[in-house]
């Protein structure tokens, strides 16, 4: 099983995509350069999504936004859990129950 490789720079990926668009075969590029042929094909598909030629997945911008939103949700959940624990601790320490939002 192969190990992981650090991400290839965006400019390198763009060059591989342009070579494929110019008629080069991903397998030939994989032999000449380091990334696998499948990685090169994935880059070409993603470039097609980004340019609007494909609609079978998220664009790079959408993927970045999704990752940012997932991080934000994770952070907000952690903060909510901390606040809930702090409120419960203060309620036990002071012997009072914090008032919640009224239902009326």
What are the defining features of this structure?
104 residues, mainly alpha, 4 helices, 65% helix, Transposase_8, transposase activity, WH-like_DNA-bd_sf, DNA binding
Count every beta strand, where a strand is a DSSP E run of 2 or more residues. Answer: 0
User: Approximately how much beta-strand content do the residues carry?
Assistant: under 5%
**Estimated structural class:** mainly alpha
Oligomerization category of the chains in this entry = single chain
Tell me the radius of gyration: 24 Å
Order of helices and strands: HHHH
Helicity range: 55-70%
What does this 3D model show about the protein?
5% of the residues are buried. The longest helix is centred in the last third of the chain and has 35 residues. The termini are far apart. This protein is 65% helix and 0% strand. The chain folds into 2 domains: 49 residues; 36 residues. Helix 1 packs across helix 3 and helix 2 crosses helix 3. It contains 4 helices and no strands. It comes from uncultured Acetobacteraceae bacterium. This is Mobile element protein. Pfam families: HTH_Tnp_1.
At a glance:
This is Mobile element protein. This protein has 104 residues and is mostly helical.
């Amino acid at each position: 099983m192969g190990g992981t490789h650090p991400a290839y720079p965006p400019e390198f990926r763009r060059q591989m995509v342009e070579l494929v668009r110019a008629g080069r075969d991903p397998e030939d590029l994989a032999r000449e350069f380091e990334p696998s042929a499948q990685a090169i094909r994935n880059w070409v598909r993603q470039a097609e999504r980004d340019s609007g030629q494909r609609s079978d997945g998220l664009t790079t911008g959408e993927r970045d936004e999704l990752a940012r939103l997932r991080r934000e949700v994770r952070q907000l959940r952690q903060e909510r859990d901390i606040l809930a624990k702090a409120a419960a601790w203060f309620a036990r320490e002071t012997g009072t129950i914090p008032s919640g939002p009224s239902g009326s």
